[in-house]
Design a protein that fits this description.
- By secondary structure, the protein is α/β, with parallel strands linked by helices.
- It has one domain: Metallo-dependent phosphatases (Purple Acid Phosphatase, chain A, domain 2), CATH 3.60.21.
- Helices cover about 30% and strands about 20% of the residues.
- It has 6 helices and 14 strands.
- Strands 1-6-7-8-11-13-12 form a 7-stranded mixed sheet.
- Helix 2 links the parallel strand 2 and strand 3.
- Helix 5 packs parallel to helix 6.
């Protein structure tokens, strides 16, 4: 069960070696107890659903072929009491009207979901509007991670979208966004109170190849975070992703096409 609490590098050859090692350990990503029922906390990012718009990811071929069926199959191992954090880029819809079928699909998948914002989630709105949207459309079992945290047993689930400093050329604008994202992460971690274990979930990777988001990492260090999960990275970029422990924090990538559309066990 989880409880919501509101406001209350590796690079070059080393990066490629880390990528290969991490890939080999992914496996199915879901465990089961003796009765075959999965119990736990999971994470996956970048579902990129598009039931309401003409932007299917199948056009990219490769692992994206029949990706909606793969998502359904991947979630089929979860039980109704499991929790899965969706690390952004959930729907290609530009508005609630365009993404309603995407969220009905998500709501129909096994387990409870916690969503955070990705860079392509243009439908994103205030928590109040999102909750009303879910209620008005009969969508259940989806919570919003934004300036708050959730608890899975005694573990605090915290996070925010994050940011790439080189995402835009306007340095002043980029700095403004970075300040906003670090503030949201801080609010999430403050909401965790005295939780002994705090996990962070992002859309953007705090580290990627030789990029290091020191602002985000500094906040994680301030609050004693030692594990984080992220998405955003696809295709060829997988080989430049950072995996494993770096300077006291362990990084794990859960982009859907990297984990074969199977939610990855966190706990």
């Amino acid at each position: 069960m989880f409880i919501n609490r509101f406001d209350l590098h590796v690079c070059g050859v080393k990066c490629i070696i880390a990528y290969i090692a991490y890939r080999s350990f992914l496996g199915a990503g879901c465990g089961a107890n003796g009765s075959g029922v999965v119990l736990g906390l999971f994470a996956i990012g970048d579902l990129h659903l598009s039931f309401g718009v003409d932007k299917p990811m199948d056009i990219f071929g490769g692992g994206w072929d029949n990706y909606v069926d793969k998502i359904s199959e991947g979630f089929s191992a979860l039980g109704p009491d499991d929790v899965c954090v969706l690390c952004g880029d959930t729907s290609w819809g530009m508005s609630f009207e365009e993404c309603v079928d995407d969220f009905k699909f998500i709501g129909g998948l096994p387990g409870r979901k916690i969503i955070l914002k990705g860079n392509h989630d243009y439908w994103w709105a205030t928590a109040a509007k999102l909750k009303a949207f879910f209620v008005n459309n009969g969508i259940e079992g989806i919570e919003i991670l934004n300036n708050n945290c959730f608890f899975y047993e005694d573990v605090a689930i915290c996070g925010t979208r994050g940011w790439f400093l080189d995402e835009v050329s306007d340095a002043a604008h980029s700095a403004k966004i970075m300040a906003r994202e670090t503030s949201r992460l801080r609010a999430s971690l403050v909401a965790a109170g005295g939780a002994g274990v705090k996990f962070c979930f992002f859309h953007y990777p705090p580290r990627f190849n030789d990029f290091v988001c020191r602002d985000i990492i500094a906040v994680m260090n301030e609050f004693g975070v030692r594990n984080c999960w992220y998405g955003h990275v696809h295709g060829y970029g997988h080989r430049f992703a950072v995996f494993g422990e770096v300077e006291g924090i362990t990084y794990k990538m859960v982009s859907a096409d990297f984990v074969d559309f199977v939610p990855q066990r966190v706990l």
